[in-house]
Structure formats: structure tokens, C-alpha cells
Batch of 2 targets.
Target 1
Amino acid sequence: MSDKEPLFSAKNRKLLTNPLGSDNPITIQVLGICSALAVTAKLEPAVVMTISVMAVLALANVIVSLLRNTIPSRIRIIVQLVIVAALVILVDQILKAYAYDVSKQLSVFVGLIITNCIIMGRLEAFALGNRPWPAFLDGIGNAAGYGIILVIVAFFRELLGSGTLYGFNVIPQAFYDMGYQNNGLMILPPMALVTVGIIIWVQRSRNKALIES
Amino acid sequence: MNTQSNTYTFLYAAIMVVIVAAVLSFTSLTLKGRQNMNKEIEKKQDILKAVNVASTPDNAVELYDKYIVEAIIVNSEGEVKSNDKAETFKVDLKNENKKDLSERNLPVFIFNDTKVGKKLIIPVRGKGMWGPVWGFISMEPDRKTIFGATFDHQGETPGLGAEISKAEFQKPFTGKQIFDESGVFTSLKLVKGTASNNPHAFDAVSGGTVTSKGLEAMLQDNLSSYEKFLKSSK
């Protein structure tokens, strides 16, 4: 890679945009499914989770990329894990002191961020072999690709399951008076999996190149 | 340098662990004070929320001092052990609930406001699905009718168990009775969908069965230790 390569060269832009579509971490690589099921009952936690994963993934990618030539390959997974865990605790501690409300919302996600396979996957597959700037973009891009699916799933689950969007009622009372009911099944984790499945199906039928032979 | 050798690997791991530990402990120590202050403010806000007084982190301390006129510690026999406001605030239910009933320090916060009148606020703490759940129950001066309730949790699932911290879940507690018609302590029972016209029951959270059951057990365990206090000095 030459030093004169522009910050947002075509190649670097791809790092940001590919994970949103044809290389999406959830629908194509099928990583990070566990947290996608856990936090998508409502839009709000899905958004909070996206932002936290983005912060941690981008930072961890940059740190691992800076250290990539020094990390002994036999303990690289442990090194990555320590970096991610330390970052998550650091972020949590700072939020607890300076943004207590946000930290309360994050409570359950902190553990989930550490176990998110996307983070380990990107550190291992990308940050270990690339420079900090592309690694940073890759982190942002993959977190965004993860987030977009989370938000889509949460949108349908909250709308159909609770009749609200971001906590606000969107289904008029008249519908309920006519006999409409919220589908309680949508709130339960299995429907998250079904929703993710439908997204994967829609995506693959629109883009045949993604179908494995 | 050979980054594959054993010596290098061991040194690398050792140095990394020391650096990370130092950074984390430094952060923890420097932020401890602020974090504890935030927790105290939150507790004050929760106590006020149980009597429907809305507060912000900025004015919580002031409102708490204004409305909570007295705070006492009672024992399971209903006798007052202490009436030191600061000491009562510091009682940690996590430790108290481990003790034998007769040795427990049971805090009661007394709220007074010229418009709403006098209310008693009782803290409760129990187990949810993933971690502790806690809350504050405020009682009318008749000591059997619930005036308001607020619950919070450490890590219940968002959208499921975590719904206990929402106003929609907490509001229906107003007006519930923890003693039956003949004056026997009943606490509140968990039911499915039919609690709105039953003063001795509350509705479960859909998808949050374990959390709801934990809440039921929490009310039973904590409120029952106040039974004699609530029955005495009418």
C-alpha cells in the first residue's frame, strides 16, 4: 500500500460499504447472531448496542493493527481478547462516572460486546494484517453492517410485538378497537431468528451471486 | 527480533497484563468517587419516584432533603432501632436480606408533602433472571394500600424482564392492598392478565416470567418482614 493513497480511496470506501450489503457480518457471514437475538425486542437497545459495538470495534481494530507486528502469533487470540475486554471495561467505567443514564442502558450489553464474534472475527481477519486507518474503516463498516440488521429486525419486532417504535405508540387505538392485537410471539427470541432468516432470504433472492452452490 | 520465541511470548503476555491492569485500576480509582455519587443520587431519585416525585440528577439531592422528612430503621418486631436519616440511607438490603429475620435492619423512609400527605417508603430487593432486582414501595398512611412503586434491575433482558422498570408496569401497583379484608398479610400475587380488578395481584411481564416470579418473591420476602411494623402504631 503506497503512502500517497488517499484517505477515502475506492478500496477504503469499499471497507465501509461492503459490510452493509454483500459482505454483511450477520446475513452473509452469520456472525454476532447471539446478540442480534437478545437486543432486538425494542429499537432503543438495538441502537445503543450498535453504537457501543462500533466504538469498541473501531478502537480495538486500530489498537490491534498498531500492535500487529509485535503480537506473538501463538497468543494472538488472548491478546485480542484482553484488548477488547479492557476497552469495554474502560468505556463502561467512564460512562458510569460521566454518563450514568447511558451506562445503565448498557449494563447488559457490556458482556455481550466482549462475546460478539464480529469483533474477534474482524480483529483476526483484518486488523492483524492491515494498517490502522483501513482497520478503523473496517471496524466502522462492519459495526454499521451489524447495526443495520439489528435496527431492521428491531423495527419489525417492536412494531408487531409491542405496537410501538422507539417507545412511542404508532398503532392507532382504533385498530385495537377493531380487534387488532400485538403479536406477543414477536417479543420472544425465536421470532428474531425467523426475522433474520427472512432478511437473509430476501437478500439472497435479490442478489443471486450470494447463493452458495 | 524473533516474535515466535517462548521468552518473547511470555514477556509479551506479562507486560501486557501489567499495563492493562494498571490502566484499569487507575481508571477505577480515579472514577470511584463520581460513580458512588451517581449511585447515591440514583437511589434518592428512586425513592422519590416511588411517591411520584419526578427529579433530575441535578435536583434529586435537594428534593430528597425537602420531601423525605424522616428515615428510620425498624426491626421485624416493628420497634424503631434508629432514626438517623443518613444511617438509614446507607442500609444495604443486599446484606440485610442475608441475615436472620430478627436481626435485619429494615429501613423506612417517611415522605411528607402538604398536598399529597404523608407516605411511608419501603425498599425491596430480590433476584431477577440475570441479576438483582430492587425497588421502592410507597404506602398510604393506612399502612396497607400501596401508593406507588418503582422497580429497577441490573441486567434483565431489554423488552422482556427489563419492562419492570417501565412506568406501564409500575403504575398499576397504585391502590393494591398487601393485607386481605380480614387483615392477614398476603403480599401481592402474580397473575396473568386479570390483575386490573384484583387488588391483591399484579400482572406478569410477557416473556419475562422468571423476572416476574422474582419480583413476586421479592415483595413477599421483603414486605413480610415489615408486617408487624405496618400493623402496629396505626
Note: The mean pLDDT of chain A is 85.
Target 2
Amino acid sequence: MSTALLLFGWMSLNGLVGWRPDWLGRWSSRLALGLMLLTLFVSEFWRQVVNALLSREAPLLAGPEAAYVSVWILVLLPILRRRLDVRTLSATLLSGLTAAAAFGLALDSAPLITAGFASAGLQLEAFGQLALTVVVHACLAGAGLAMRQLMEAEHTTSICEQFHWEYAAIYAGLISMHQAIA
Amino acid sequence: MPRLAALALLTVLVGVLWGLAQAPNRAAETGGLGDSAEARQAVEAWETLWSELGERGVAALSPTASDASRRSAGDTVFMRYRNLWGRIDDEARLAFQLAALSGDPARKLALIEPLTQAEEPLIRFRAHLERARLQRRLQDFESARIAARAALAVPELPERLRSDAWFVLADSAWAQDRLDEAETALNTAIADDPGFWDARRLRLEVLARRLAEPRQRGAVCLDRTRRMIEDLGALPALAEDQTQFRDLADRFACQGTPSHVALALIAGLGYRWSGDTERARVTLANAERLRRRLPDGCERLILERVSGLLEPALAPEQRP
């Protein structure tokens, strides 16, 4: 149930900002930040990851080395360009947390939909499962990117001014870390 | 961008709500293990195991022999294979033979050492694995683990060879009390080669200790119990020796008091499959008194099966 509520929260925030940008005003970035943190704390998947780490069970995520180097290079681009200020650091951190929240939400919601199919008597084939997972990840990755841009809205006039490469890279990295274990 | 995201989220939300509406009571379906994908998989595998046991009995657990060139047991790892080293070059073969004939461990190691640099991956693998076994025998478990890892790192090997390297790794880790590593290595070894007697025997011991550890997740506990049952059923079939059921059951029922319900179930099944129904009944009936040592959901599912096993034993018309 918490997954559905979180999805509803994400959707209404994105919808409000999308159709009535002036209603929320400066609150949109704070709301996005709060919602992202709440998602991280409530997410079933991340709770399991932490539990597994604490109790030294088999981990649910492989280490960062499981993702391709090319993925992390995108995150490290600012360091390569020697732009090492607090703003870059906090922007990367925000992107990482948002990507983690969106990724956890996607992993929580995909099995719920699959289980719905299963109990309705429709057995999804392997391809159907894969397609469903890909669609859910695509939706959540997009929503996470939108949320990430909402958090910037205070500083820039246009929301679409900057594309967050590090967000996309971290999301891709999380997917390959998850794939490496599964 | 936010509009598109809102529309995309709407579709996911509708899907999730529909899923929730279709399956209102899924927490009950996993028997109190929670609602994660892991718990569902664990419960599903557990139910499959028991329905197969119900249909075909212990025979359901005997591994199918897929590869005729592999034996299930042998006193050294390399005796499990037929015609394994057919295409090895003469120089390397002579070195291996001299090493095998030598009585001095230091000389054996000296003979094998240069072969770990060989071009041919098969020779390199064999040299690393021989070294791992030698170090293991010399009780130098750390070097044995390193050598086994080096063997596993050799590329382009036939998959069937790897399970032995995993086993040597697990055995050294077990001797060093690294249960976590031993368990993972054994799971891999058995997944590669379900008919590996020694790996299954060692996994029974490792899992029994792992189950007794505090703070494990319910799903993990259930998976471990299921693997123990699979191993228990497979071992006598692999050795073609039905008396092993009794030995294994005695092992886990040591002094008549297993330490938790999973071990009681294993011991009870062992006695039952060895034909000693009376002893099986006593062991299983004692399981009720061993509550509160495993995660709740896992314990409940195990006890359900225990009482399921006790019922037909009590019914008078089914008594032999």
C-alpha cells in the first residue's frame, strides 16, 4: 500500500508542477526533496538492502564495480573537468539519492503489478515480465529525472535548462548492480 | 517534462492499484514472511518442493545424472571425471605425475608451481586447483582459498570443472569459520553439478550452523531449510546407500534434542525415509517444543509441514 501512496505523491507533485507551475511556487523544490527522502525511508527494497547489510546475509545489490566503468565516468565528469566545488558535490549527491529513490520505487511496484496479473489468472511469460519491468523502470526513471529538475527550479528560470547526466548514469549503474546479483 | 512524468506515473499507479486489488491478501499467502519478492520466491520454492515430495516421495529429490563423464563421489576431486585430461601435453603431464607420486608436500608444490603460469587454461586451472588441495591438506587454509580463487578466475573453462574449485574454496572457508563464503560457494557448486556428493554433505553442515545464527531473514531461513531437505534426499541416492538416511538423521538429532525446528524436521525426515516411522514420529513431535529460535514466519511454515507429517502417522488405517 505504501508503494501506491508514494506513487500517488510523486504523480500529484509532477502533475501540479506540470499543469499549474505557479501554484506551488518555491515550494515545489522543497516538496520534491522531502518526497524523495520519504521514498528512500519507506521503500521496501532499500530496507531489505540495509537489513541484508546489517545481518551479513547475501547482499541484494552487487558492489559498484558491477556497473560498467563507462557509467561511472559520466558521474565523475565534473571531477575530470576539475570543477570540485560544494555545488557540484551536492548536485551529484541529490542526483544519486533521487535515482536511488526512483529505482527503489520501481522495484517495489513491478512485482505488485506482476502479482496482480498472476492472481487474475494471466501468467506472464518471460518476455512479458521483462517488458513490464522495462516499462516500469522507464516510467520511474523519467519521473525521477523530473523530480531532480524540480529540485533545481529555484536556481534556473527554465526547468528544462539542464539535463542531469549524472542522474541517468547513476540510474543505469543501479540497474547493472542489481542485474549482477540477480 | 513533469507532465510526461505525471502521465507515466499514472499508468504505473493504475497498474499497482489494480495489482493490489487483484491480490488483496498476499501477506497471508507468504505465511507471514512479508511481502517482498524474495519472500514470495522462497515460499514458492518451498511449496514446489513439498508438492513434489507429496507426489513422488524421496525419489523427487534424487538428482538426474545429466553428465555421464562425472561421478558423484571420489576421494580426490579429479577422480570424479572420466577422460578429463586427454589432450594435455607430455611435459605438463610428467610434472603432474611426478607431483602425484612424490611424498613430500614441498616438492609437490615446487613441481606444480611453474604450471600455474602455463598458456593452456586447462593446465593452469589444474595447477591452481592441485595447489589449493595441497595447501588445504597442509592446513594452510588462507593459501588454499587464494589458490582456489585463482583457479576460478581462469577463463575459457568447461563449466563442469568449476564446481570442484568452488568445493575446495568452500571447504577451506568452512575450516576458517567463514560460513558466509562457504555457503555461497557451495550453492554455486551444487547449482553447477547437482550430483556432487561431497558438496551436498558439506552444505548440510554449513546450513545447519547458518540456521542457528541469530538475525536472519525469514525468507533466507526458509531457503536454507529447503536446501537442507534437498541435500538430505539427494545424498543417499547419490551414494546408492539408503542407510545414509539414518546416519544423517542421527547426526542432526544428536542426543535426541535438535536445537531448532528446522533440524528437527530434517532429522524426522531422515528417520522417516530410512523406514523408522516410530522414531520419526517422536522426533517430529518434539519439534513443537523448540519454538522461538528461528524467524517467526519461517518457523510457522516449518511447523505446518511438521504437523502435516505427523497426521498420517497418527491415522490408524495408514499405519503399516
Note: The interface with chain A takes residues 1-6, 8-13, 15-23, 26, 35-38, 40, 180, 184, 215-217, 220 of chain B (CB under 8 Å).
